[in-house]
């Protein structure tokens, strides 16, 4: 069960966060409602408590609903000095459990161990040698992002910087990390520039560790000597002091004409925990969204994956019909496409069988999921509501208080609260800088009205349908 909880945690926070903070967390015991966990240092303990306490609890509750408390303690020196079993033996096993449909390690196509690029003072995050421009497939949803990334990668030291920062956002598995690592590989091989790829977690970890060892100054200077700073998964940047540091670094680099490239799962305006100054700086460069993968692009990605696998397993072949089938049915994201090819590879290798449509149908059944509900944007809500009530979007954001705009505005805020994950203050901000209590009032008002006014209730339902289509 402990390994399942760890698996959940890993999925929930991502590989990089997991290795940074949780890899050395051990289970000491479970008693009634509380789970006792330990970590080797006080620092880890307070960091996990401050940032991940809820997450850890949720992961436990998913396995054991009766758990209501997590006790985290610091292991004594003696125990942590002898980590042997937990640390080494199960690690591989865990990897296999966690590879989510990827073949066993010896079959991983070109999956050489991740290598780090050469940044000594500042360890960058590991780079995957497969994630290059050569293997990146261009389609309608990523043309612009790709072109911008290429442009950035091909720049030379001293060139004028065209878009700074370049900010790419997209949902999970749509190619952000691929594109960022491609920029890093290309930048590091072609020119004399120093390109550093860091996940936001790694940035935090580096900064906090530097503070602890009183080398923060060296850390900052090393960062400012970078020509191209590439930051992945910015949505994970947490904590006031790290954000302030990130802000300084960003400003220093941009002002010095260095390039910054950022990826996140949402646009700058939706990075709620960042302060306004960082947000506006982020939005001041080029912001590009990568949309969902179209069928043609999915087919392209599948083909590129097969080609990569064939470099090492020459007999591996996937018939056109199977590729078409996969491209049509696995609509979710690039990770599942990769997983599907890896499974077919594993299966055909292990059983020495050619890939057939029937085999594909069986092997990838669980990767075919119903379309995720669409992520609804506040702007869309405002647009649809404005149209419905025949007012303008700026009326909704204005301070006008006439009845014909007050009600639509309240409906729009109510929909924003119920259809998105945005917080009340964030919604207030997006409605012309209103206070969160105003939003709360609107939400309650509409909730009350919907309960007794059938006409309004139907109107609201119809708006929801329009937005979800
Ligand atoms: P994200 O960082 O946005 O979650 P990744 O960059 O990790 O997504 O992509 C997930 C998988 O899909 C990776 O295997 C990646 O190589 C593949 N992928 C996504 N988009 C493309 C693309 N345009 N061309 C080739 N592979 C892609
Ligand atoms: Mg990623």
TrEMBL record:
A GO biological process held by the record: DNA replication initiation
Ranges of residues in domain AAA+ ATPase: 162-288
Region span, Domain IV, binds dsDNA: 349-469
Any single Gene Ontology cellular-component annotation: cytoplasm
PROSITE patterns per UniProt: DNAA
Residue span, Chromosomal replication initiator DnaA C-terminal domain: 377-446
Domain of life: Bacteria
Keywords for the protein's UniProt record, in alphabetical order: ATP-binding, Cytoplasm, DNA replication, DNA-binding, Lipid-binding, Nucleotide-binding
Main localization of the protein described in the UniProt heading: cytoplasm
Compartments in which it is found: Cytoplasm
GO molecular function annotation: ATP binding; DNA replication origin binding; lipid binding
InterPro entries, per the entry: AAA+_ATPase, Chromosome_initiator_DnaA, Chromosome_initiator_DnaA-like, Chromosome_initiator_DnaA_CS, DnaA_C, DnaA_dom, DnaA_N_dom, DnaA_N_sf
Renumbered residue ranges of the record's region Domain I, interacts with DnaA modulators: 1-88
UniProt keyword Metal-binding, yes or no: no
Residues that coordinate or bind ATP: 173, 175-177
Family membership: Belongs to the DnaA family.
HAMAP family, sorted: DnaA_bact
Protein name according to UniProt: Chromosomal replication initiator protein DnaA
Source species taxonomy: Bacteria, Pseudomonadati, Pseudomonadota, Alphaproteobacteria, Hyphomicrobiales
